[in-house]
Amino acid sequence: MGEMVKVGLKYCGGCNPEYDRVALVRHIEESLQGRVAFVTPESEGVGLILAVEGCSTTCADLSAFQGMDIRVITNIDGAEGFIKEIRKRV
Description:
90 residues, alpha/beta, Rossmann fold, single chain, globular
């Protein structure tokens, strides 16, 4: 296993969530224990940004992270894809 990835976590505003975003992030964190550390997006050493959007509108403003590696999750299936990607990467 490689080095742990610092993931800057960015939530949408939560105006119309179709699932429990916080519970989904907990699931991701548990699934990737020892592989990722969720931190604020502004933290030093962030390897990528994970935008957890409550629906397909994807309204979170990600302009502050321009030029960074960004992943967007809009549903549970997207979380499983993210987990698989990180497992391959680290």
